[in-house]
Amino acid sequence: MTPRRFMPALLLLFVGSGCAALVYEIVWFQLLQLVIGSSAVSLGVLLGTFMGGMCLGSLLLPRYVSDRQHPLRVYAWLEMGIGVIGVAVLFGMPLVSGIYTAWAGTGVASILLRGIAAGICLLPPTMLMGATLPAVSRWVRTTPDGVSWLGFFYGGNTGGAVIGSLLAGFYLLRVHDTAFATFVAVALNFAVAGIALLVAGAVPYESPGQEPRGGTFAATPGAWAVYLTIALSGLTALSAEVIWTRMLSLLIGATVYTFSLILAVFLLGIGIGSSIGSAMARSLQRPRIALGWCQMLLCGAIFWAAYMCTQSLPWWPVNPSLATSPWFNFQLDLVRTMWAVLPAAILWGASFPLALASVASEGQDPARLVGGVYAANTVGAIIGATVSSLLLVSWIGSQRSEQLLIIIAGLSALLVLEAAPSADTGGRRNAFAGTLPIIVAAVCAALLARNVPAIPPLLIAYGRYAVTRIGQADIIYWGEGWNASVAVSRLPGGVLNYHNAGKVQASSEPQDMRLQRMLGHMTTLIPKDPKRVLVIGCGAGVTAGAASIDPRVESLTIAEIEPLVPRVVSTYFAEHNFNVVKNPKTTVHLDDARHYLQTTGEKFDAITSDPLDPWVKGAAMLYTREFFELAKQHLNPGGVVTLFVQLYESNTEAVKSEIATFMEAFPNGVVWGNTQEGRGYDLVLLGQLTPTPINVDEIEQRLQRPEYAQVRLSLSQIGMNSAVDLFSTYAGTAAELQPWLKDASINRDRNLRLQYLAGLGLNLYQSESIYASMLAYASGYPNGLFVASDATTNALRAGIRREQGR
Predict the structure, then answer these.
(1) What sign results for the dihedral spanned by CA atoms 516, 517, 519, 523?
(2) Comparing C-alpha atoms, which of 263, 250, 261 is closest to residue 326?
(3) How confident is the model at residue 40, as a pLDDT?
(4) Which CATH number does the domain 509-804 belong to among 3.30.70.100, 2.30.30.280, 3.40.50.150, 2.40.128.90?
(5) Looking at the domain 214-455, which fold is it?
(6) CA 614 vs CA 287, 366, 653, 745: distances in Å
(7) Secondary structure of 348-405 as H, E, C letters
(8) Comma-separated ranges of CATH 1.20.1250.20 domains in the chain
(9) What pLDDT, in 10s, does the model give residues 714-758?
(10) How confident is the model at residue 72 (pLDDT cuts 50, 70, 90)?
């Protein structure tokens, strides 16, 4: 038996190990999403592969590593192996990316290739991670005290994961990049390994002399029920995490910080629960009874979270735009997340050590005991995460999914309380079977499931501002899709709004229509021969519609990640988007736009990008220097790229990052401004593959042709009656804005800096001051940008001065 005085040291080692593991998880997910996309399919593949590796590692170690080996030495080698592979993944990712993109396509074959790519990167290190707890478990014996320490090790590992989640999300990746974060995790691995080797050298290990061998999990009578229960516990835990993350992201804002907070709170609850369960396991005579009631209490905890997320938290009198610092909002977000999620997470955490105690018996191989329970729990987690993210929410919705989770938790409680024979009763059925408390609890669970509230349409539409928008809009459509929850609302004046990520993404408001039409028409009017056009992000379809009505456009491809948007949302805006989705020219490609460009061989004459706000987790991948270079590779000679840049709900640092990154890829890029009542609102960036002056007179002549009547009408509807009006929105060139951009952070694949900068500004409204500071560096008239007659030039000069307020 290991001297008790060394147990706290082992606990600290697991804290360090868990911290490194979560840093790796966040970094690897970020790197792999750049390769295989950030759609629900890709995330499901990543989660399944990550947890599948953990499961395999926990099962294989006790079967193939002899218990004669010193557990701490095995643990140390595992930690060093994780560190070495972590570095290999970091530097080997370009090779994996090249192989994947050379073969990837669409459909089932694409999903299989995504799984292979993820497996190559994630299975080796995650198998080692999954083996660490079974490896160290051999340093204790399967006595009540020893089993409780196994639970404490699990809790310490989870506590370290909390630190890793916050460290990666709020510091390492915000301030540095994936390489720096990886090396921090590697340093933790080797520090943990070094300490483990020192302790192993100081404390001898007495082997029980049992070689690894095959066999079943069941070491005690009725153990199958415990394994099934802990698997169902893992299923409900990960399913709920997926569902609640979507709900809370609407309420708080779907930033990288929100995801880190939710993950940290979830892990914190599991760590607390594991510690409580471990302490209980020392003295409980019948731990499977406690495990059963833990699952029964989960029915109430799941209902609590569902009720809080839909009926309580959205209506707290909170206006996040009033905070003088985003860090104050983070504090409130942390409290709200803990209020909703912590009770259930604590119960899930307590289930693991109670399950260990329920199947433990004297003389068992501790590694086999821990590996079996851990594997069962992880298998359930894999099923829960993948099924919820890929099927349940989009198929039956959050409300029905939570009802199903309550039913599953109740059934798993009844299973372990009633169905399994109890070792401490000599194999007889549990003494609690059929008693009134269980019947009452089961009835209560059924009632709770029946009364799970639906997600409010106002929350889907307005997210964190829902409480401030009560009664202001009629929500005429809402739906929970594969990748996002979307809504369409109508204001009293008849204005339509398209909502995604808990905010308005497009509307028929004059300022929004102006931006969307500008984006679409500039994309097709400026290039010489825009036959093939790619639109990134369907949204309300107005930008795509504006591009589609250009007579020279023969083919229009829309890359949209959420199926509900083109299928449903765009139909509500058909009057404004020229019914673009049903246009014979149009092809809708449902995929992450980056993944689409990486895997398609098509080339385009023009590409326009109007993705979600850059603060939405994953959206910054469409604003990196590497993505803009990828777009350039898919342009035909003379092609152009246009990009939407928002000024509202942003900050100066984020806007500078977007513009500076684009201008690095397009050194002769141009900024066009969309103003509201003379104040900055948002921008259009223009980049050309081959810098070519814009012939304003030629474009005007084209607009006067009969076949361009629909384009003229579209422009006139936004107050632009000529080409001069369109190009009078000029707001600066890359060369002019260089002094303003000198301190900008370039958004690259290795850091995705933009999502961290933008995440600090989502509750700010500084568009006027941002635009004014930028215009201070722009000239009144750009020499060399336009080709025009003297009369047109004079009109342009006057128009630019008017638009810039000079």
Answers:
(1) positive
(2) 261
(3) 76
(4) 3.40.50.150
(5) Growth Hormone; Chain: A; (1.20.1250)
(6) 49, 48, 12, 14
(7) HHHHHHHHHHHHCCCCCCHHHHHHHHHHHHHHHHHHHHHHHHHHHHHHHHHHHHHHHH
(8) 1-203
(9) 999 999 999 999 999 999 999 999 999 999 999 999 999 999 999
(10) confident
pLDDT at 390 over 90: no
Strands 532-536 and 503-507: unpaired
Cα(348)–Cα(295) distance, integer angstroms = 8
Amino acid identity for residue 641 in this structure: V
Q: How far is 588 from 557, CA to CA, in rounded Å?
A: 6
Give the architecture (CATH level 2) of 1-203.
Up-down Bundle (1.20)
Q: Tell me if 553 sits within 8 A of 547, measured CB to CB.
A: yes
Asked whether the beta carbons of 320 and 615 are under 8 A apart, the reply is no
Distances (CA, A) of 235 to 53, 200, 412, 460: 17, 36, 11, 26
Per residue in 322-363, pLDDT tens? Answer: 888 899 999 999 999 999 999 999 999 999 889 888 887 766
Whether residue 703 contacts residue 795, with contact meaning beta carbons closer than 8 Å, is answered with no
pTM to 2 decimal places: 0.90
The two three-digit tokens of residue 276, written as one number: 């409580």
- Name the β-bridge partners of 475: 489
Residue 419 has pLDDT above 70, yes or no: no
- The tokens for 39 are 């759609």
What does the alpha-carbon distance between residue 30 and residue 420 come to, in Å, rounded to a whole number? 43
- Amino acid 508 reads S
- CA atoms within 13 Å, Cβ hemisphere of 779: 13
Give the model confidence (pLDDT) of 128-140 as tens digits: 998 888 888 777 7
How many residues are recorded in the chain? 806
For 34-80, give the DSSP string: HHH-SSHHHHHHHHHHHHHHHHHHHHHHHHHS-TTS-HHHHHHHHHH
Tell the burial category of 339 from Cβ atoms under 10 Å away from its Cβ (0-12, 13-18, 19+).
Answer: middle
- The first and second tokens of residue 277, run together, are 């369960």
pLDDT, tens only, 515-559: 999 999 999 999 999 999 999 999 999 999 999 999 999 999 999
Q: What is the pLDDT, as a whole number, of residue 432?
A: 45
User: Which sign does the torsion angle of CA 594, 595, 599, 605 carry?
Assistant: negative
d(CA 357, CA 424): 12
Give Cα 33 to chain centroid, integer Å.
Answer: 10
CA angle 584, 643, 789 (to 5 degrees): 90
How far is CA 436 from each of CA 285, 418, 445, rounded to the nearest angstrom? 22, 13, 14
The position carrying tokens 């929410």 is 393
Residues of the chain with CATH 3.40.50.150: 509-804
